[in-house]
Specification:
two-stranded antiparallel ribbon, two-stranded parallel sheet, single chain, mainly alpha, globular, about 70% helix
Length: about 400
């Protein structure tokens, strides 16, 4: 066992070095330009004047605090370098990679006391995920920050049993990226079943209070009471389309099609929302039905909630499956299921093809419409519906597994 652990440690170090070697590759230009602009703006005008009418900014406050801190540190140690430079891109992506490594460490900590070899193997499988590698070290997205705080909140809620610490870290996750809210129904069920009603109410109150207090500097000038809610509404309405290149159910209808089109007098956006909410209710029903569900059931429910969010509603980006992988990997190891670990790899490959497709389109083809040099891009273009169907079938299988006796 010591030899296996030694090999796993060396392999983890190798993966980290590979990730660092990818930092100089071109970022996803659209997103990186936005991060750079927001960094410059938060440093220049501060929180109070950041969300100004006519200025595009749809991310919540803690991510903007983080950008401001990153920008100040960059200016301090890289004097003379512009925020709109390659060094800043590499600096940004190195920090996103660091957050991804920290998520792997949380996964390691969860299994460390029961089986160190398993703990190293789980951390390695997370670090080897091509989606995680590409998003953090090449693309340059902020999903690793949200997932780190999401996993940290789960660690304190379900493995350390400290709900108030959970409230702190979950509030941070939500204020980095609103998608963290997808986890709230399952977490609320856990709180309700595991703690007294007073503790349940107190924890959720602390969560809401922290979120509003931290956000207040951004909204105190114009909208102190409902500013965060209005920002959430604005964020959800930025892209009113069926599928934003996500290989999900709505991609079978078409990419970037308006989701206000009607089907039997109902707009697609409403149909997607209803189906998504029903899926969450179905996932939650198992937790309510059982007297005391075990931790693995809650983790699996969280993973399936994020998979539902990727596959069923409209207005979904290709990256929205990202939180699923950390949670599903935890579930696979908690269930001690080789089948789930294999499916983790399969779904990671499918989503990586989706993410690479979008990255290549906008970084290469979008500005060079005559470009015809990628067999892989052309192949994915012709087969993406099959990739969507396969992912949907795997989702149905996982729902069935979640409800099966085998998962008990």
């Amino acid at each position: 066992m010591l030899q296996i652990r030694g090999f796993l440690k060396i392999f983890i170090l190798f993966v980290i070095l590979v990730r660092l070697s990818l930092l100089a590759l071109p970022s996803f230009k659209i997103d990186m330009t936005v991060w750079q602009a927001w960094t410059a703006r938060i440093i220049e005008v501060g929180p109070v004047n950041f969300y100004s009418p006519g200025y595009f900014a749809d991310y919540p406050p803690i991510y903007l605090y983080l950008l401001g801190l990153m920008g100040l540190l960059f200016n301090l140690f890289q004097k003379g370098q512009s925020l709109f430079s390659l060094p800043f891109e590499i600096y940004f992506k190195s920090l996103m990679t660091l957050f991804d490594l920290l998520t792997a460490y949380i996964i390691y900590r969860i299994f460390k006391d029961s089986n160190q070899t398993k703990a190293y193997a789980a951390a390695l499988l997370y670090l080897l995920n091509p989606v995680n590698i590409f998003i953090a070290s090449v693309w340059g997205q902020n999903d690793p920050v949200m997932v780190f705080f999401l996993c940290l909140s789960i660690y304190f809620l379900m493995f350390v049993q400290k709900p108030l610490v959970w409230a702190l870290f979950f509030a941070i996750a939500v204020l980095v990226k609103f998608q963290a809210l997808i986890a709230l129904p399952v977490m609320a069920i856990y709180l309700f079943k595991k703690y007294r009603f007073r503790q349940f109410v107190y924890s959720l109150t602390v969560l809401a209070g922290l979120a509003l207090t931290v956000s207040l500097p951004f909204f105190i000038k114009n909208d102190p009471l409902l500013g965060l809610l209005h920002l959430f509404q604005k964020s959800s309405n930025v892209y009113p389309y069926l599928s934003l290149f996500a290989f999900n159910f709505w991609s079978l209808v078409g990419f970037w099609q308006p989701d206000n089109q009607l089907w039997f007098s109902m707009p697609y956006v409403l149909i997607g929302a209803i189906v998504f909410i029903l899926s969450l209710v179905f996932i939650a029903f198992k937790l309510f039905r059982e007297h005391q569900p075990d931790t693995k059931s809650y983790i699996m429910a969280l993973a399936l909630s994020y998979m539902s969010f990727f596959l069923l509603p409209t207005r979904v980006h290709e990256r929205y499956l990202y939180p699923f992988f950390a949670l599903f990997l935890l579930a696979a190891f908690l269930y001690k299921s080789l089948r789930l670990k294999i499916l983790y790899a399969v779904i990671a490959l499918l989503n990586f093809l989706n993410i690479w497709y979008v990255y290549f389109y906008y970084n290469v083809i979008y500005n060079n419409p005559g470009y015809t040099g990628s067999f892989l891009f052309d192949y994915i273009s012709s087969q993406y519906r099959w990739l969507s169907i396969i992912t949907l079938l795997l989702y149905v299988f996982l729902i069935k597994y979640y409800y099966s006796k085998e998962s008990s």
